[in-house]
Design brief:
By secondary structure, this protein is an alpha/beta fold. About 45% of the residues lie in helices and about 15% in strands. Helix 1 packs parallel to helix 2 (about 55-70). The longest helix is centred in the N-terminal third of the chain and has 18 residues, at about 25-40.
Length: about 140
Amino acid sequence: MDRVPILKIGPVLLVSIQVDMQDQVALQLQEDLGERIVATGAKGVIIDITGLDIVDSFVGRTLSTIASISRVLDAETIVVGMRPAVAITLVELGLSLNGIRTALNVERGMELLSRSTEPDSPDEFDLDLDDLSETTSP
């Protein structure tokens, strides 16, 4: 059985689908990706579907499920490289791919992830213990 490679690039996992997404391959990808998100602490997942000519309803639902699994594991999913025919098919099948953002290519997907994983303010995650002790001292 073919497996889809999952590469780690900083805090992002890149999944490049270059094989036919038969049902068993899609299910294995779900499992493998969930394990890799937990093992690496990835904050983002980019799924490159440039190599897919056709997407059926099962693969479309699997992409949506992968995004849901990623979200539960604290990682955002972006699908890149969608061909117009694939987009048309997904719409015709009524698959909205909730929770999945899209970008034209991997570079734009990385940009989206870098913007969405930045803290809202520069010191959001920086707790200065000196400031805290000043407010609590008598």
